[in-house]
Amino acid sequence: MKVTTRKAALGGLAMFGAAALLAGCAQAPEDNGGDGGGEALDYLPCMVSDAGGFDDKSFNQLGFEGLVKAADELGVEYNEVESAAETDYASNLTNLVDQGCNTIVTVGFLLAPAALESAEANPDLEYISIDDTVDTDFDGTTDAPNIKPIIFDTAQAAFLAGYLSAGTSQTGVVGTFGGINIPTVAIFMDGFAQGVEYYNEENGTAVKVLGWDRANQDGSFTGGFEANDTARQIAQGLIDQNVDVLLPVGGPIYQSAAAAIRDSGREIALLGVDADVYETDPSVGDLLLTSIRKGIDVGTYNAIIEAGNGEFDPTPFVGTLENEGVSLAPFHDWEDRVPAELADKLTELQDAIVAGDIVVESYLAE
Predict the structure, then answer these.
(1) Which N-terminal stretch is annotated as signal sequence (predicted)?
(2) In the prediction, which pLDDT does 38 show?
């Protein structure tokens, strides 16, 4: 377990896009106690990672970047606690409570039970839950009034990635695998499969999806979120079945997939998730067709800015294509290999999803 307290500084963190990326979240005020002067805020925002750690080049890193940017703008210090295993979650949250944190951000679906227990025990503190609604009784509402969920209907963006993958595949076989079969992982895989199915329906093709069975809502999973030999073997098994587009969903497991792709000696496109992996990990940039992005960094930033200025709002935020909370990253090095008509079609499909003319199924869909 690693715990640090520091004055926020952007340093080498990736720069943010427009602060308005997540429509519906409050914008940063012009005078918020930052470097522009005024009385310093008596406010301590904190964050606990899941077992992937803050250097996962994915959703933990994005959440951390949002924390750092918000703390820097507010002119306050922040605390971070990095979990090495799931067994650390409850004790890490207790650690942050004991250190006087005002707002605690929990990163990841698996942290939700510990977050709820901590929130119920500390009703005067504010909690921000990334990737889970913290609805353990499944009644459609968050279980504690002091928790703000930041969640993402990534099936919508994954649908576009599936359509794109089917349109660029030369073998007619694409594949996906995940870390653990939990909703925030499966939603990518299911949206991806729906996009491939739609491509087949529109074009009279039969592109296959390996690694995910929509009917049974199950597929290929590593059992964790580590870049290890298990992840590499699963990726290799899909490659051996002739896939030429591969979507690994689960933080660092994409690194194992990239290693398997390089070992194959074939041209196989890699899809990133959460962040634009081309930017967070340039070492795999040449393999990336695109990434399915979630605006975790900006969502975290906006929620902490609100809380730091006494405007904490527990209303859940759901990122969609319409509010740009989810999106596809640029094609980067693959730009010349994506036909213009296919790129134009993706824009058309996005517009149709936003308009409700195409319904992408997911547990977050209305």
Answers:
(1) 1-28
(2) 52
Alpha helices in 99-207 (DSSP H): 112-121, 154-168, 183-203
Q: What is the DSSP letter of 41?
A: P
Instruction: Judge if 2-152+296-319 and 154-294+331-355 fold alike in CATH terms.
Output: yes
Q: Any idea what DSSP says for residue 285? A: G
pTM of this prediction?
0.83
d(CA 79, CA 96): 8
CATH 3.30.365.10 fits 2-152+296-319, yes or no: no
**d(C-alpha 218, C-alpha 326), whole Å:** 23
Rounded (10°) CA dihedral 336, 339, 279, 26: 140
Identify whether the C-beta of residue 69 lies closer than 8 Å to the C-beta of residue 32. Answer: no
Question: Which portions of the chain are predicted below pLDDT 50?
Answer: 1-37
Gap between the Cα atoms of 21 and 335, Å rounded: 24
pLDDT at res. 39: 66
3-state secondary structure of 104: strand
Characterize the bridge pairing of strands 269-274 and 245-249.
Answer: parallel
* CB 23 within 8 Å of CB 324: yes
Q: Which residue has the tokens 């012009």?
A: 30
Answer left, alpha or beta for residue 324, where phi above 0 means left and psi between -120 and 50 means alpha. left
CATH H-level superfamily of 154-294+331-355: Response regulator (3.40.50.2300)
Return the half-sphere exposure (C-beta side, CA atoms, 13 A cut-off) of residue 65.
23
SS3 192: helix
117 backbone dihedrals φ, ψ, rounded to 5°: -60, -45
The beta strand positions in the chain, using DSSP E, are 2-7, 45-48, 77-82, 103-107, 126-130, 147-152, 173-178, 208-210, 212-213, 218-219, 245-249, 269-274, 288-294, 317-319, 326-328
Closest among 153, 124, 83, 106 to 300, alpha carbons compared: 106
The burial of 166, by beta-carbon neighbours within 10 Å (0-12 exposed, 13-18 middle, 19 or more buried), is given as buried
Would you list the domain boundaries of the chain?
2-152+296-319, 154-294+331-355
pLDDT of residue 78: 96
Spatial CB neighbours of 281, under 8 Å, sequence gap ≥ 6: 57, 255
Q: What share of the chain is helix, strand, coil (3-state, %, to 5)?
A: 40, 20, 40
